[in-house]
Amino acid sequence: KHVVPKILNRRSTPKKLAILKKCIWCFKDANHNICLAKYKCKLCDGTHKDIVCKKFAIEKEKSETVQQHSLATQSQAQRDILLMTRQITVLAGNGKVIRGIKAFIDPGSSRSFIKKELASKLAIDLKEAPEITINAQGMFNHATSFASKSVQLKLGLRGNWRQKLEFKEFRFCTAEKITGKIATAKLTDREIHLLRKRPKHEKINIPTENYEAEILIGMDHFWELVTNIEHLPRGICLVETLLGPIVCGKINTKNANAINCYGSENVLTYGLFENLTDQQKLYGLEGIGITDSPTENEDESAQNLFDKTITKNGNSYCVRLPRRPNAPPLPTNKNLCLSRLNSTLRKLKSIEDPPNLLEMYDKTFTDQLNEKIIEEIPEDEQETENLCHFIPHQAVYRQDKKKLRIVFDCSAHIKGHPSLNDTLYRGPVLLPKVAAVLLRWRQAKIVIACDIKAAFLMLELHKEDRDLTRFLWLRDLNKPPTQANIKILRFRRVLFGAVSSPFLLGATVIHHLRNSAIAKKYPSIAKEVENSIYMDNILLTANSEEEGKNKINIIREIFLDANMELREFLANNESVLSELEETAKIAPHKKFLGISWNNGEDKIKFSFPKANAVDWTMRKILRVLNSIFDPLGLLYPASLKARIFFQSLWELKLKWDTPLPEEKQLEWMQ
């Protein structure tokens, strides 16, 4: 159970294997002279495992001292420090792309800086830039202050080296000098080879020489750029940033008694005071980086974004997708969607029952176009500066209900790139407990159930987010999916499939129930609906027919004010629904929250799974037990014996897919 690199040394591995009577090729109990295992070393392409490769044996590390750096001595292993440096790409003021700018990422600095000399070379207008004063507090109580300019510079960003470079504007303060010479610790040939071998980092920037930084990126932009931190062997860290991957960390070596303490003479911790006469800033806790506002969690961030961006256009609510501010760039996904479209078309044409599934699929899109749920993008609007993303779709057809549903896969992504769902906040879960809703359902004399028609599609999607929901479909079903026969569409409403859609629906309904003028006229009913709505299913209770009819009329009026239609009404007292039109009702024996309900007799029905399997295993039995949906625990007495039986199987120490002994098979079937 040990990690292999911790107990094996490359130079002595064959000897250790010989002592353990293991094959030196496959590490198993076998004679290596007759071993047929075929391994290919990732390091030298030899026919052995890379753990025994001699080509990249661990090199001896040499202690080095660098000018302008102090040296401390102590009786422990040398620890070289590899700082976060990288050459980056920027966009000059004249629109020219400049590559190879030397940057130093310093989380210890509260502000970001650019050398005044570089700012002039990049054609940044320093005359018009606002003047500020910098107070810099450094090591050993060294402090200084100097005049600076606040300028903006566009940095080249991309989530993956295969992606197209995008430029985003960041604010920097000018300084005559930012750092002295920054030292680089030595990496072994093997480490460099392995880093460059990694599929995502073929263009990794590995520092090999000391240099003076031209740009310092501080804590004000640090977390906007960093996307992931991965710990590698020997103390190295691989920091994924939108500028590109960066190698850094404290490197453990074994062959020296001194350590080099690398710190540049001008790398200081900066405190920015734009107005030094402001005593509150100068002496307040905020001045030393202590603030009274803790970091928001993701659910709070999603809720705050929703509260700031929700609007009402007429009777309809318009919402925005809660995008993560520091999410990596989103690719278009167009080629992926084209491939998935071909796959979907082949599947639709291959299904014989029903034979017209392709036409049904096409009719769904036609109906949604007519209802303005989706829209076709004109050719002159297909090329836009807005972020665009295509989503693949596929068919889900239920033979028992003869019903087709089109599912959009918002989690689809290209390798090494994020999906749409990866860039969105999920949002808080605003649903009540199922058990609580069902208990209220069982308590009342009269219960009424209904749902919101096409609930997600009743929410308008903000125009700036619609290009994130593009998808492809055919103009003519009888022609192949060529470029001329493919049209580009996008959603005008919130689509089901985005990870944030349930939150957006729940938050919108709650917002409406708390803020609508009509809902405020009936606060008790609005509160009852808020406590008993589960996604698009609504439960009402009443003690009399008159009360039930009154509540139905009120909630229909409340939801109509949000352009939401209530339908499929069902009650355990038919008289309550007598004033409703027939199209608003549903046939009896409906499932409510997954439970079969005979509303005529006001009884709920549970069905136990059929035990038809052969060669029962622990996995199959657990699947049967978990298939019983019983949120109120009403069936526990009936299923207790089966659960005790399953518990007893652990004493046999069987594997999940090993068939049970014959006597246990018989006991289970009984």
TrEMBL record:
Domain of life: Eukaryota
Ranges of residues in domain Reverse transcriptase: 437-566
Gene3D superfamilies noted in UniProt: 3.30.70.270, HIV Type 1 Reverse Transcriptase, subunit A, domain 1
SUPFAM superfamilies found in the cross-reference section: DNA/RNA polymerases (SSF56672)
Protein name: Reverse transcriptase domain-containing protein
Xref: InterPro entries: DNA/RNA_pol_sf, Retrotrans_Pao, Rev_trsase/Diguanyl_cyclase, RT_dom
